[in-house]
Amino acid sequence: MAHITINQYLQQINQAIENHEGSFCAELLSFKHPHVANPRLQSQVAREKCQQILEPPYDEMVAAHLRCTYAVANHDFVEAYKFQTLVVQYPFFRAFQSHKEENWALPVMSAVTLDLRIFANNAEQQLQKKGKGQPGEMLEKAAEQLMSCFRVCASDNRAGIDDSKKWGMMFLSNQLFKIYFKINKLHLCKPLIRAIDSSNLKNEYSPAQKVTYKYYVGRKAMFDSDFKTAEELLSFAFDRCHRSSQKNKRMILIYLLPVKMLLGHMPTHQLLRKYDLIQFADVTKAVSEGNLLLLNEALSKHETFFIRCGIFLILEKLKIITYRNLFKKVYLLLKTHQLPLDAFLVALRMMQVEDVDIDEVQCLLANLIYMGHIKGYISHQHQKLVVSKQNPFPPLSSVS
Amino acid sequence: MSRRRGTRISTQLQNSRAPSGGWRSPRNKKQCQSESKTHKNEVEAEDQGKEIKEMAPRASCQTMCPAQELRNRESQNRLHCFEVVPGTESFRKPKGDPLRAVKEYSRPAAGKDVTKPSCLRPPDVLLKTVCYLIDEIAGSTSLHPWTEVYSFVFDRLRSVKQDMIIQRLSGKDCVAILEPTVRFHIYASYRLCGEPLRIYDPRINDTHLQEYLSWLFDCYKTGSGPYPNQEEFQTLGLLYNLGSSPATQDILELPERLRQTPSLKLALAINRAFLEGNHVHLLRLVQKLDFLQACALHRHLVTCRRHLLLIYCHGYHSRNCRFPLDRLAQLLSLEPSLTAELCQVYGIEVNQHNQVLFSKSAFTEPEQGSLDCKLYHSIVSEKQRGLTVKSIIHGCT
After folding, report:
1. Considering only Cβ atoms within 10 Å of each terminal Cβ, which end of chain A, N or C, has fewer?
2. Domain boundaries, given as residue ranges, for chain A
3. How many other CB atoms sit within 10 Å of the CB of residue B361?
């Protein structure tokens, strides 16, 4: 493929188009395929030949694709992105839309949209290095184009299941999720999630696609503080993710762990070691022991890592769980149902919580009572926390 | 072939950062072919190292208001009372004062050419315009009522923003204009709190403020700096958007040296207290804020106080609850009499011995309009002390 002549290449594409060979056609237009390194395809002559051999709009599409290979060969991703846009935006999109009741072009769609996103990413990075360009601008534009393709797929109501373009929806959603997460516009995920949820193909997509989908939707649920849903989705993704994709499994775990910890389930040290996530070890230890001091230290020690992954804020929520565990210890130590507020103050001071006084202790306790982590009430007159004789510290998993 | 330019309002991007170049070519299939050719030419031009800026419209208007607009509005009697020559207000056609007239905001429309150089004000004129608006209008002690002042300044600042977008301004020029604009809107959000909706809508102020903030932060991120006020504005942004995950995440991604500055550390601590539900701690930290910072935070005070009362209703729920009103007043940073009023608004009983009877079942959401935020502003207003509006908006406090 790296030595094929321009004529051979174009004939192959033409054939693939005429015979509706989606996968083969996709390969010939994908940057994962060796043909992109072939210098013979990158000349002006090659582009002119497109018009001779191919029908519109494929002639323009392939010509733009070839210009793109030239740009990539020169490591100019800004150019590459521009030409990939020309591939997707007008010619491919028009062709795709015109395919009534057939979906043979879905693999092509997957290939060109994937390359579009990747080039948008690379182009932005190149621009950033030069200090130009708005962050997220190119990715947003790419997203717009992907969204148009998504709409074509989602609105394909006429074709039968086998010929429906709806099979392309999850792939496109996953691509769009990647962009929206990157540019931090999570609210744009909602319409996609809704569309997929209401589709009858929801559970029929490939396992790989489903894992990716649930990973992103799980992360979105985390962001919306819907931790029970997040746990379900991320657990699914983790369990079904292929054993050999260690990197992906680790990525899922990075988000699954905080959610599980908030629900009271601490990971084993073994698990953390297996996936190289020792950063969580101190956090886990601190939370289960109610050790605020250790928690603060652990969070600040691995701050950069947690912030980069976007879980720093969720881990801070563990502070409330840690207060609860600490206060439970106080209760277990004093073995009474009428606990002097001073005892909690002492506990907090031991954890080197700075300038905390009785007023704040009361506020913290009131908050825990309000959230359902403690069953009882505070008596201001007696300066005591009076807890229920039955299960005053309900298990974390039972509190929403 | 001339390429038509026009603004396209894309719903997807409505909430995005303020566009530094809100110009997209219209989707016209017929033109697409030839467009892709001119697109390629443009691409090649960029290849040769020409900056996009060279294709941006030029601006040559040296006055705050383009002469043509002044003439038009004067003849149509559409001058604002702040723009007329003093003494001519009561004339049938008041005379426009070129030293006081300011270009107004006008909606983009098809066929309207907003890129005429004589109507566009270059960056230095824009900055002078902003200073005029702050010093002579917003900061004036003689112009009343302030709601009128606000409307005028709001609109004229919007027009400044338009000129900035059309010229694709970026970097230091943008920042110099955006910073006082942000301060103005933050101050206004406090000053006009409680005004009737038909005169002042806090949501509109909020929408524009968020756009300005977003754009300003983008400038900081992509520009070469240095930006000596960045600490101040990142702090104001976080306080204004207290508890928001995206806002917090943005701050966390700032370089270490910024995050360790005293005001940002304080803002982060307040934010943390807010997220943890520790409003006692939060209200104590608020004491350390300066006036403008308190203005930024002020709209969250209602939420904080409400949450404190709510969790205390749960936490102290018992038949014998007798919580001292004075103590509660201290925690809420309010006078005891106002504290009692606030309790009443939320359905919480205060007995004749000035004791609060917290109870889970008592807490009710206040009826629409029964909670007047302005009454509880002392925590902010006491910080204003000798400050003038002018100095607040210029940031010389």
Report:
1. C
2. 1-156, 314-398
3. 8
- Give the residue with greater pLDDT, B103 vs A96: B103
Q: Which two tokens stand for residue A26?
A: 């996709």
> Partners of B349 in the beta sheet?
B357
Cβ atoms of B180 and B393 closer than 8 Å: yes
Q: Smallest Cα–Cα separation from B91: which of B106, B103, B75?
A: B75
For residue B249, the chain A residues in CB contact (below 8 A) are: 184, 307, 310, 312-313
Q: What's the pTM?
A: 0.81
Q: Mark yes or no for CB contact A379/B36 under 8 Å.
A: no
Regions of chain B short of the pLDDT cut 70: 1-55, 397
β-strands B23-24, A384-387: how paired?
unpaired
Using a pLDDT cut of 70, give the percent of chain A over it.
Answer: 99
The one-letter amino acid code at B298 reads H
Class of CATH domain A314-398 = mainly alpha
Are B15 and A185 in contact (CB < 8 Å)?
Answer: yes
State the CATH class of domain B304-375: mainly alpha
For the residues A69-76, what does the mean pLDDT come to? 88
Residue B183 near residue B391 (C-beta atoms within 8 A): no
How far is it, in rounded angstroms, from Cα B293 to Cα B385? 14
Q: B114 — phi, psi (to 5°)? A: -90, 5
B44, B52, B165, B249, best to mutate vs chain A, most A CBs in 10 Å: B249
């900061």: which residue's tokens?
B139
